[in-house]
């Protein structure tokens, strides 16, 4: 589904991604771990099309389509979803109106008619329940005054509503207490199908107790330095990242 | 102060006044005749303001006044009632429609408001009414208000509304002001609304251009003056919806006088079109425990010049005022916000707040924002401030990352920006209408 080849990207003139290679197939969950500053969030931002990041080289395709030449909105319409690490508060835009607009923009792109109000509200209800998102929040302004946990849950609620092919969760676990973490993870697990894929970016192994990945990648210094199964996460939890840093340095020297 | 180029117009008004004064002497009350004479003397002294006058610093009126104008409107409007109403119609608003064409109240096109408690007529028909005699021309300092002085001297007609003590009008009154002319026209409508103690009223005023001048033909300059008096405990919700085409210029003076325990809310919105729009909105809080809220929204586009001057004058203790003006600036539009709050000596325990925020959508748009506070009392809570900014890039990206295209995303953010004002609008139909006008104005 997603193929990333030799992706290099910089922010404010500083190269952060230095040749990332990754392939993700439908039905898979990939975890990307790594120490601070290794480029995890940059990868997420570049995939979503954030203009603050400049792509220097490489290619990214989603089902064969070149993603990098598309606008952020077209990437979303093609089925890429980024759950933000820091969801933006937008007072004056109601959550529900925002979702309806997003949904209809995506549908128009796919040559589908706008969703009927009744059908839309039914879907809202259903997905609210699925991800345990408080109905009262749906009618409030987008993320305005939401707690950290509520914002993250709203991201998962949007994910459920928009039903993307590829969901990228950027440190969705950060700032969540154990209950919120469980709710968010349950939501994601319920949304997993044979047709979609997830990239879970996280710092800690904790989230991966709930969302069990098929692959774990370690991103260090802008490159994926190690890939393994879910047991790699446990190993990292135990040993930290230093042993990989050493290994990476040796490779560089060679 | 008279500029050379406006001399012709100035001379024309001198000639007009000779005639008007004769008519007035024979047809109007002595008080009114005297008032006109005094006002004209005043105008002759100060003339039209130029940019050396502090309050007119940012507006060069010369291009707007250099045309040859006729000062008496020609034939009545060629539109039918249905056409007029359709043009200004606010969907789902259940209201009494009152139609004024070129400042002239047309009862045939207007609804009748039932009951004895409200009297509504043309201003000229009301000059013998006690509330006219008690309030007309009493509140605007003519030495500082060039256009109000000219209007007082030369106004033809307008609307008069008086409602009795404790009267509550069941539905909003929707006043539709249409201007329309085949020749360049200088119009001077004049209105007076007087509310008795404890009375309650909602007035929605729409300003629109009629069809005849829409095609780039005649220029219409409107020098409009409204005086509004709220008796004790009276409540007025007052809306201005200002639209029009670019050949129309408005100088729009509204003078409000509030007595104790009264509430005045003004919701003012203006949209792309009208070439020049100068609003003077002055509120005198002339008693204790008064509340005044001024909410403004200007969406300016093209080469529009939008100038909002407000004065909130706290004369007595224990009053509250709150002012919020938001501007969305497109193209090469220029907006001026000049808000003044006075807290007079003795007006203790005053709460007075004022804010002006601007969202710039274009590099060529200009805003001059000048919030001012003058406080002569020592136990007050006051604040003022202004901001000028652009789109929040993070918010824009967030919306796009959900599949929302650039234009829709911006529209959402503009609505969100305006929301602080639009959410205050109590009548849902008016709120929806204004949101529609925003939508349209963004195109």
Overview of this structure, please?
Chain A has 254 residues and is α/β, with parallel strands linked by helices. Chain A has one domain (2-222): P-loop containing nucleotide triphosphate hydrolases (Rossmann fold, 3-Layer(aba) Sandwich). Chain A is built from ten helices and twelve strands. Chain A has a six-stranded mixed beta sheet, with helices on both faces. In chain A, strands 2-1-4-5 form a four-stranded antiparallel beta sheet. A two-stranded antiparallel sheet of chain A has the order 7-8. In chain A, a hairpin with a 2-residue loop joins β4 (53-62) and β5. In chain A, α2 crosses α3 (95-109) and α6 runs parallel beside α7. The mean pLDDT of chain B is 92. Chains A and B meet through α2, β7 and α3 of A and α7 and α8 of B.
What's a concise summary of this model?
Chain A has 254 residues and is α/β, with parallel strands linked by helices. In chain A, 41% of the residues lie in helices and 28% in strands.
Question: Keywords, please?
Answer:
heterodimer, A: 254 residues, alpha/beta, Rossmann fold, six-stranded mixed β-sheet, four-stranded antiparallel β-sheet, 12 strands, globular, B: alpha/beta, ten-stranded mixed β-sheet, 36% strand
Q: Can you lay out the helices and strands and say which pair or pack?
A:
The complex is a heterodimer of chains A (254) and B (443).
Chain A: E1 2-11, E2 14-24, E3 29-33, H1 40-48, E4 53-62, E5 65-66, H2 72-78, E6 80-83, E7 90-94, H3 95-109, H4 117-130, H5 135-138, E8 141-142, H6 148-162, E9 166-170, H7 178-191, E10 197-201, H8 206-210, E11 215-220, E12 223-228, H9 230-239, H10 242-253
Parallel strand pairs in A: 3-10, 3-11, 6-9, 9-10
Antiparallel strand pairs in A: 1-2, 1-4, 4-5, 7-8, 11-12
Helix pairs in contact in A: 2-3, 6-7
Chain B: H1 7-27, H2 30-46, H3 62-65, H4 81-88, E1 96-101, E2 104-105, E3 118-122, H5 130-135, H6 146-154, E4 159-163, E5 173-179, E6 185-187, E7 190-195, E8 200-209, E9 220-230, E10 235-242, E11 248-258, E12 263-270, E13 276-285, E14 291-300, E15 305-314, E16 320-329, E17 334-343, E18 351-360, E19 366-375, E20 381-389, H7 393-400, H8 406-422, H9 428-442
Parallel strand pairs in B: 1-5, 4-7, 5-8, 6-9, 7-9, 8-10, 9-11, 10-12, 11-13, 12-14, 13-15, 14-16, 15-17, 16-18, 17-19, 18-20
Antiparallel strand pairs in B: 1-2, 3-4
């Amino acid at each position: 589904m997603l193929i990333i080849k030799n992706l290099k990207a910089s922010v404010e003139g500083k190269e952060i991604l230095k040749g990332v290679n990754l392939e993700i197939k439908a039905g898979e969950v990939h975890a990307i771990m790594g120490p601070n500053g290794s480029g995890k969030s940059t990868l997420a931002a570049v995939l979503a099309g954030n203009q603050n990041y400049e792509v220097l080289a490489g290619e990214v395709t989603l089902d064969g389509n070149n993603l990098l030449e598309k606008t952020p909105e077209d990437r979303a319409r093609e089925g890429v979803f980024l759950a933000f690490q820091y969801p933006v508060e937008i007072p004056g835009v109601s959550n529900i109106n925002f979702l309806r607009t997003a949904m209809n923009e995506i549908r128009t792109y796919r040559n589908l008619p706008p969703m009927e109000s009744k059908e839309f509200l039914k879907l809202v209800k259903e997905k609210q329940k699925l991800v345990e998102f408080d109905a009262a929040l749906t009618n409030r302004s987008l993320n305005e005054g939401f707690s950290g946990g509520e914002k993250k849950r709203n991201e998962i609620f949007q994910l459920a509503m928009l039903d993307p092919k590829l969901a990228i969760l950027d440190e969705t676990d950060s700032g969540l207490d154990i209950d919120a973490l469980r709710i968010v993870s349950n939501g994601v697990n319920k949304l997993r199908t044979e047709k979609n894929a997830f990239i879970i970016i996280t710092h800690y192994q904790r989230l991966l107790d709930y969302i069990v990945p098929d692959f774990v990648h370690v991103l260090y210094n802008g490159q994926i330095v190690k890939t393994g199964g879910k047991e790699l996460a446990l190993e990292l939890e135990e040993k930290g990242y230093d042993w990989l840093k050493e290994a990476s340095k040796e490779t560089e020297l060679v | 102060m008279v500029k050379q180029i406006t001399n012709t117009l100035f001379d024309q008004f001198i000639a007009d006044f000779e005639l008007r004064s004769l008519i007035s002497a024979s047809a109007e009350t002595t008080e009114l005749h005297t008032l006109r004479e005094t006002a004209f003397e005043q105008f002759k002294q100060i003339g039209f303001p130029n940019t050396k006058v502090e309050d007119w610093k940012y507006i060069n009126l010369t291009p707007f006044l250099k045309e040859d104008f006729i000062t008496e409107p020609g034939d009545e409007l060629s539109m039918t009632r249905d056409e007029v109403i359709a043009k200004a119609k606010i969907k789902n608003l259940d209201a009494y429609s009152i139609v004024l064409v070129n400042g002239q109240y047309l009862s045939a096109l207007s609804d009748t408001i039932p009951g004895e408690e409200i009297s509504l007529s043309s201003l000229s028909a009301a000059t013998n009414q006690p509330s006219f005699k008690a309030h007309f021309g009493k509140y605007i300092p003519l030495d500082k208000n060039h256009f109000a002085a000219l209007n007082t001297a030369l106004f033809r007609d307008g609307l008069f509304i008086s409602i009795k003590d404790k009267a509550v009008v069941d539905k909003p009154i929707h006043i539709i002001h249409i201007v329309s002319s085949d020749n360049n026209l200088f119009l001077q409508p004049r209105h007076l609304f007087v509310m008795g103690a404890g009375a309650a009223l909602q007035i929605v005023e729409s300003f629109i251009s009629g069809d005849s001048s829409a095609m780039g033909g005649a220029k219409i300059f409107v020098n409009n003056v409204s005086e509004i008096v709220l008796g004790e405990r009276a409540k007025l919700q007052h809306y201005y919806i200002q639209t029009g085409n670019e050949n129309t210029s408005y100088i729009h003076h509204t003078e409000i006088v509030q007595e104790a325990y009264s509430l005045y809310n003004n919701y003012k919105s203006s949209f792309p079109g009208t070439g020049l729009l100068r609003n003077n909105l002055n509120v005198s809080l002339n008693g204790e425990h008064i509340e005044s809220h001024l909410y403004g929204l200007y969406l300016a586009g093209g080469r529009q010049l939008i100038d909002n001057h407000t004065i909130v004058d706290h004369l007595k203790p224990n009053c509250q005022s709150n002012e919020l003006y938001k501007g969305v600036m497109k193209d090469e539009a220029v907006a001026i916000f000049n808000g003044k709050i006075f807290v007079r000596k003795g007006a203790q325990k005053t709460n007075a707040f004022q804010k002006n925020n601007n969202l710039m959508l274009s590099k060529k748009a200009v805003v001059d924002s000048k919030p001012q506070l003058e406080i002569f009392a020592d136990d007050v809570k006051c604040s003022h401030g202004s901001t000028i900014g652009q789109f929040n890039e993070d918010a824009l990206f967030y919306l796009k990352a959900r599949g929302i295209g650039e234009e829709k995303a911006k529209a959402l953010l503009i609505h969100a920006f305006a929301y602080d004002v639009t959410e205050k609008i109590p009548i849902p139909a008016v709120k929806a209408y204004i949101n529609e006008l925003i939508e349209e104005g963004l195109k």
